[in-house]
Amino acid sequence: MITVIESGENSDHMLRTGDFLVQVNGIDWNNYPLDKRYTLLTELGEGTQGTRRRASLAELIPNPQDAPLVQVVLKRLVDARLITVARESAEVAHEALIREWDTLQEWLNENREGLRLHRQLTQAAQEWDKLDRDPEALYRGARLAQALEMIQAHSAELNTLEQVFLEASQAEQMAQQTAETARQQRELEAAQALTDAQRQRAEAEQRRAEEQTRAASRLRRRAVYLALAFGASLILLITAIWLGQLANRNAQPATGSVGGNASSYESVSGRWNVTW
After folding, report:
1. Is residue 276 in some structural domain?
2. What is the per-residue pLDDT across 14-28, written as a single tens digit (0 to 9) for each?
């Protein structure tokens, strides 16, 4: 914990002792994790010692209702010459405090990756706010998943802007997923409609082909019937002609026989007449 020794004591002594306790009457420190807030004033080093980092007061205030408490704490830290405050931001007054404060180093080391993700989240939220909260600047995909995993154990450390940023990122991703699902559904329905139309056209073409086949078959049958009828008519005609000719030939001998009989009759009658 951080100790702000009452006025009159030497601040160099505070740096040497390492651990400090903020003594402000009437403050319930269980409701304000000052240690975790103090890590925001430290720039994480990559294999090197951490350095001072200027943080906006908004980062140090998880919720608006904490503002009065934070102002009191910041004033005591400023009075103890542990931090400096200017232009709505705060900074560690002595980098020696970061180097020598063993407890702070423990806080930084126990969740270094989480702190790094939190810093990235802070920068992204501030940039989003500067861009008039452009949806294109929101988290999505793997970055959003990492941030959500990080805040499961550190949700109390987020300030209002960071919370709003993550909520907007989740809402935007859900909206995009919903839109993507709707787009895929439309494409599926369009593909299904196209498939149905193609199937209907194929069925109609098949019906037309079958009807054409049946019509051609009917025409072939009619042609056969006509050919058979024509052949039968031709046979009947030939038969009729042949029978006619045959009848004519038979009629000629019969006529000659009748004429001879008549002459004989006349001859006999003449003889009879002569006798009488």
Report:
1. no
2. 444 444 444 444 445
